[in-house]
Amino acid sequence: MAVKIYQNLVNRVKDILKCDVGITDNYGMVIASTKTDEIGNIDDGSFDFITTNESYLENDDVAYMKIEDRKSNSYVAYIRGNAEYRKNALKFISLSFENAKLYYKEKYDKKSFIKNILLGNVLPGDISIRAKELRVKDDVRRVAYLIRTEKTKDIFAYNIIQSLYPSDTRDFVVLLDDQNTVLVKELKEKETKDDIYRKARIIIDTLNTELMVKASVGIGTEVDRLRDISRSFKDAQTALTIGSIFETDKTIIDYNHLGIGRLIYQLPTTLCKLFLNEVFEDGVYELLDPETMLTIQKFFENNLNVSETSRQLFVHRNTLVYRLDKILKLTGKDLRNFDDAIHFKVAMMVKRYLDEVQK
Question: Domain 2-108 has what CATH class?
């Protein structure tokens, strides 16, 4: 289909200039030409021109111009004969060629189609029609993974994920920017939530092994229609955002398992401040030193079990009891009491959320 677009372009230019026009790839092979017998053959002049550092070259018989590509000088346009305004005509061909490539990509490229759905650039009513044109299944189970990595100059993370899921008919790997990549994964009939999570773990482990970069994955909700994949993507974004506040030790955050963090994130900050003031008096929370905070964290992790917490902290049981009494004296909350522990835990999460919002 793209070749037809390029062929129409050179034919129109010939109608204006009254001379033969062609386009070659980066190997010098003619992909479009007004002389149809040239198509598919290597044009020696273009091949030699590609190896030079020149962007434009002309003689009495032909003029060449490289068509700049984002990654490399991938194409060459040429005009045969000594027609007037050859250079300007080749500039026009170069611009028209880039527009034709963009048009083709937007209309016929599956990944661009999926990316536009994710970003909400396709009308819901057009999605099923375009899906049929591109032979993309509409009514199958899918889930969106948002993979976020450290900022790098290259897009190696995208390449690694693409190598894990090379199929461009069932799974789609979409590059958003140098930190964010989306995997739209088609699910098999018997795949469970555990299988979905396991795939995220494979991605994390592969990126850590191959690139040695820190990565986190947000898992969106499972959807049954292609038009709903944008919702799954937004849920994956929300999962990573909430996870970065409340689950900083986790690398995989599932939107369906956000817990109390989801509720706090959706509350107005005014209500959060009111709740925080109910639990802690002004300045009390700031009196808790790092050692005390570590004690509180371990105590919660071990379900308020004094013996297990003291063992993990490598302190005597009586030392832990002394620390808990100290916390009670400072805050008025006895963490050995379930209700007090609940209020304290939620208040810590609210404080973390407010600190993040106020950054």
Answer: alpha beta
